[in-house]
């Protein structure tokens, strides 16, 4: 496995590769990331993992400076799975001030985008840059970041990018909490309480499966249940899986999404529902 830090070295290393599978990450890898890499291993003869904490997707009051940077430990976890780890500096990825951006679709201003203005513009821009550098045939993204996955799919379609986007199921702890690098910010007590997030999603999913069609009512009840146990809820939303639109009557492929803070830690999760 090679660890590469410059664009020139990356391009030279990949120049003759014909089957590249790519996993973009911000590092601080957990088992969910490793599962993405295992999926990449099945889909390409050369597996590239990027580790880059992208400044342009963080807002001014977000955790860019304190976001965990654990490159040595991450590389140890990737041994035997990845062929190339691309870990550029900010100056390498942004050799001059970025004034050109990918403008994502309107959904980028809803859900998480309503609480993190400009976030998905930063995500889409860096992913496009990484696609240009790595030139993969396939890229793996986790479904935990469901809105991100939807926006990346649209970017690939609308820009005619020759990349197959594969969505991987959310990896979870044994109690159901979605694995996330931000889980480490939780105190021991908060970690015990955090499972209520996925349990709330399951309750909404079960209600939908039982035939409940009052989506707004289900959303409000879920928000109230979370708030009652100490969560600061940003949203609970029932959307169509296709494009995250507000569901039309009779829509059978739904997704329930949530974002909420427990103490100082912001967590997101979702569950797909097929009726």
Shape estimate: globular
Tell me the CATH topology of the largest domain: Rossmann fold
Order of helices and strands: EHEHEHEHHHEHEHHEEE
CATH C-level of the largest domain: Alpha Beta
**SSE class:** alpha/beta
Considering the protein shown, what is the CATH homologous superfamily of the largest domain? HUPs
Number of helices: 9
Instruction: Provide the gyration radius in Å.
Output: 19 Å
Number of strand segments: 9
How much of the residues is beta strand, in percent?
15-25%
- Name the strands of the widest sheet in spatial order: 1-4-3-2-5-6
How far apart, in Å, are the first and last alpha carbons? Answer: 44 Å
Rounded mean pLDDT is: 96
> Low-confidence stretches at least 5 residues in length (pLDDT < 50)?
none
CATH architecture of the largest domain: 3-Layer(aba) Sandwich
Give the helix level as a range of percent: 25-40%
Query: What kind of oligomer do you see?
Result: single chain
Query: Biggest β-sheet: count, sense, barrel?
Result: 6 strands, parallel
How does this model look, in words?
With 275 residues, the protein is α/β, with parallel strands linked by helices. The protein folds into two domains: 2-168, HUPs (Rossmann fold), CATH 3.40.50.620; 181-269, Pantoate--beta-alanine Ligase, Chain: A,domain 2. It has helices at residues 7-14, 31-41, 71-78, 90-93, 112-115, 119-134, 146-158, 188-209, 215-228, and strands at residues 2-4, 20-25, 46-51, 84-86, 138-142, 164-168, 232-240, 253-262, 265-274. Strand 5, helix 7 and strand 6 form a beta-alpha-beta unit. The chain is globular, with a radius of gyration of 19 Å. The mean pLDDT is 96.
